[in-house]
Amino acid sequence: MGEDGNTAHGRKKFKRSRSHFTDRITADGRDGWPVEAGRYRLVVSRACPWASRAVISRRLLGLEDALSLAIADPIQDDRSWRFTLDPDGRDPVLGIRYLSEAYDRRETGHPGGVSVPAVVDVPSGRLVTNDYHQLTLDLATEWTALHRPGAPDLYPADRRDEIDEVMAEVYEDVNNGVYRAGFATEQKEYEEACAAVFRRLELLGERLAGQRYLVGDTLTEADIRLFTTLVRFDAVYHGHYKCNLWKLSEHPVLWAYVRDLFQTPGFGDTVDFDHIKRHYYQVHTGINPSGIVPLGPDLTGWLSPHHREELGGRPFGDGTPPGPVPPGERVAPQGRPA
Fold first, then answer.
1. pLDDT digits (tens), the chain, 338 positions
2. Active-site hit among 40, 48, 237, 241
3. Distance of alpha carbon 122 from alpha carbon 39, whole angstroms
4. Is 48 designated active site?
5. Does residue 302 contact residue 331 with C-beta atoms inside 8 Å?
6. pTM to 2 decimal places
């Protein structure tokens, strides 16, 4: 991504780009993209928290057979996300080396860079959407005809106002807040962002002290969005982004909450700590010029008892857990707690 991309982090004022391609894949196909099994390919990086939302949602909803998955190399080069994990360095379905090729087929000279998650139309090879905010909501509400039997309702209609309110606060102070702290170029800017992160985490801890999940007694989209930041917190945000007032593992409520989610099928089995650490520490050379990846933290604690079941709750509501991870999508041993 050159001087305007990865090397600029920590040297250039941070502002998150809005998604440029906001078409929606819907049941009625009103944007020209109808829900259709096998037509689309979801491109992600296991390192990216925004993409990880889509990976978790897809698995919880049982969309693996309907929406295929492409996993990019966590280490980007100047053309951004690449498929060097695949044979011959090409995605086996799309036949491209770089995700940017799908973007360029949609629009040449597009603004906003090349981001994941991205959904690509397989027949045309064109990008459909990179709208990370709307994508998972549509997987939950527009793709219902293709959900597995027993799929949870991740965005229940009677709870949406509360879910939206919680997600907005989590996004502002936590999901995006860690980036504002990590990419700050001035002391005051960093201190304000870092303080906001921990202020919100304390409030979330108070909320979760007496209830198992963020909204209601079942898993929702709000839990997915908080999880993808929390699971990365001690591994990268505490050190790399200087969000170090305390570690997540030092907060009894949040540490138990995130372990509960990690041990829930569909969450931890999608997490690759190796990809996460290598991406942040090796790609963000503006923050970590040496590119050295730290050995820690110890991952064994992720599998320790959390006792959150004592609060009650029904993770999948009236539904059931997802089945085993498809063989081709299993996280390699070096990315998982032993």
1. 333 455 555 556 656 556 689 999 999 999 999 999 999 999 999 999 999 999 999 999 999 999 999 999 999 988 889 999 999 999 999 999 999 999 999 998 888 889 999 999 999 999 999 999 999 999 999 999 999 999 999 999 999 999 999 999 999 999 999 999 999 999 999 999 999 999 999 999 999 999 999 999 999 999 999 999 999 999 999 999 999 999 999 999 999 999 999 999 999 999 999 999 999 999 999 999 999 999 999 999 999 999 999 999 999 999 999 999 999 999 999 999 98
2. 48
3. 6
4. yes
5. no
6. 0.94
Asked if 194 is an active-site residue, the reply is no
Of 40, 103, 179, 257, the catalytic one is 179
